[in-house]
From TrEMBL:
<dbReference type="GO" id="GO:0005178">
    <property type="term" value="F:integrin binding"/>
</dbReference>
<dbReference type="GO" id="GO:0098609">
    <property type="term" value="P:cell-cell adhesion"/>
</dbReference>
<protein>
    <recommendedName>
        <fullName>Sema domain-containing protein</fullName>
    </recommendedName>
</protein>
<dbReference type="InterPro" id="IPR028994">
    <property type="entry name" value="Integrin_alpha_N"/>
</dbReference>
<dbReference type="GO" id="GO:0007160">
    <property type="term" value="P:cell-matrix adhesion"/>
</dbReference>
<dbReference type="GO" id="GO:0008305">
    <property type="term" value="C:integrin complex"/>
</dbReference>
<dbReference type="GO" id="GO:0009897">
    <property type="term" value="C:external side of plasma membrane"/>
</dbReference>
<dbReference type="GO" id="GO:0007229">
    <property type="term" value="P:integrin-mediated signaling pathway"/>
</dbReference>
<dbReference type="InterPro" id="IPR013519">
    <property type="entry name" value="Int_alpha_beta-p"/>
</dbReference>
<dbReference type="GO" id="GO:0033627">
    <property type="term" value="P:cell adhesion mediated by integrin"/>
</dbReference>
Length: 323
């Protein structure tokens, strides 16, 4: 069993040894990882939250610091975009930034119905992170407070970055960027002339993230969707091109698909349920199929609720939904 303790910008890893008389925890840490002092363009005036998230891989430990300043010149005017660090078991105990996004804020003049401009200040990259131990499997890190900007309106969309190889000291491939909330007409529901409901606009995708045990899928919590009712997004490789017929399945470059279930179809939830606050998966009650788990801590008038569910075809809506 592994135990992680983050304190004052460092990670201590303690390994629990198994003996005949039970478990014994070593008194001295096997590894201590510290955030390396790097030159950043903005001064780090408060804690970077180094150690907020941790992911063990064969080649090293990945550590999230969602309030870290950036050392990249392209992000010199961005305040606390957050960072992911990679720490080696063998060469040194120092940790270095693992750059999943090297671009600064982007402004797209041409409007095509999608919100493509991005603001990355205080986006909390590394606040959610997951991956299996093998370096050839999915590794994902999210920034739930990433903002999409349109006409000086800020949309709290969130973003996640996925790569398939983490053996090198830095990113050698272009990560897949998961951003399913860009469609402008889906930002709000207009109920009447005086009332609207926020649909994608404050979704906060990436509040939590999980890689399934078979390494083939990601599930991502977005507790802000539809007035904080929340939803759980599925991301996987696209092997069925017929999926493009479903309205809420977004296919990227014919290789990956992102499914965004509409929470209005799930009657057990209401606004401010925060569905997707925590996410996981497993095989339950001798069921060989992987099922999905997500919490809704403010459902049922604040009592909270945890749902075990599957993604199903809802032909009457031309959607993939949750049941």
């Amino acid at each position: 069993m592994d135990r992680f303790i983050g304190s004052l910008g460092r990670i201590v890893i303690l390994f629990c040894a198994h003996f005949a008389d039970g478990n014994q925890l070593f008194r001295e840490p096997n590894y201590i990882f510290r955030k390396t002092a790097v030159n950043s363009f903005q001064q780090q005036n408060r804690s970077s939250y180094f150690g907020y998230t941790v992911n063990l891989r064969v080649s090293g430990v990945f550590i999230g610091a969602p309030r870290a300043q950036s050392q990249l010149e392209s992000q010199r005017n961005i305040h606390e975009p957050g960072a992911v660090y990679k720490c080696s078991y063998t060469s040194t105990s120092d940790c270095w930034p693992f750059h999943l996004d090297k671009e600064g804020n982007t402004h797209v003049e041409k409007y095509d119905g999608y919100i493509r401009s991005e603001r990355k200040d205080y986006r909390m990259l590394g606040a959610a992170m997951d991956g299996l131990t093998a370096d050839g499997n999915f590794f994902v890190a999210c920034a739930p407070k990433a903002i999409g900007e349109l006409n000086e309106q800020y949309h709290l969309h969130g973003v996640c970055y996925v790569i398939g190889d983490t053996r090198t000291t830095n990113v050698t491939e272009s990560p897949h960027k998961i951003k399913p909330f860009m469609l402008n007409r889906m930002q709000v529901y207009k109920i009447s002339d005086r009332k609207i409901r926020y649909f994608y606009m404050l979704g906060e995708m990436g509040f939590n993230v999980h890689v399934t045990d078979d390494g083939k899928e990601l599930i991502i919590g977005a507790p802000g969707v539809l007035d904080w009712t929340g939803t759980v997004i599925r991301y996987r490789q696209n092997n069925d091109h017929d999926r493009m017929a479903w309205k809420n399945v977004h296919v990227v470059a014919d290789s990956h698909e992102t499914t965004v279930p509409n929470p209005t179809r799930l009657r057990t939830l209401s606004e401010f349920s925060y569905f997707g606050y925590a996410v996981n998966s497993g095989r339950f009650l001798m069921n060989r199929k992987i099922l999905y788990v997500a919490s809704a801590p403010r459902a049922k008038t604040g009592l909270g609720q945890v749902l075990i569910f599957d993604y199903i075809e809802q032909s009457s809506y031309s959607e993939i939904g949750i049941r």
